[in-house]
Request: fold
Amino acid sequence: MSTCIEFDNVVAGYKDFMILNNLSFKAETGTVTLLIGPNGAGKTTCFYMIVGLIKAEGGSIELNGSDITSLPIHARAQRGDMKAHAVLYRAFAGGVNGVARRLVRSPDIAEEIVQDTFVKVYRNAHRFEPRASFATWLFRIAHNVAVSYLRKK
Reply:
């Protein structure tokens, strides 16, 4: 059986507070693996490191045999990681909605623009080049989707 995800001596924390200290585990493809522990044990921190919201301070994380330890979330989305896309949506949908509302002046239309923007981001993730920040690229797409709507109107 192949390894789906592997943490090898992963170290992570917030500022001066260490959450994970040399955590190691493997989850095999086709099996169910549970992370069980009390509040503050690091379960959410593990998930955030898998999707790229938190960087490991040490150790390595492999997903399907590829080292993802230092990959930012947008790079994970470019690889087709649907969890990364979901996290990006949660992180940026409010801001995209704000851009759309300012341009189209309608909450309902703005929500459609948010959806259209993230569909374009998903379909065109392979085109993102990190010369600019991911947020800049995303908000440019949102602006263009809103302007296209206004032109059609």
Notes: The chain has a mean pLDDT of 90. Residues 120 and 146 are 13 Å apart (CA to CA). The longest helix spans residues 82-104. The first strand starts at residue 3 and ends at 14.
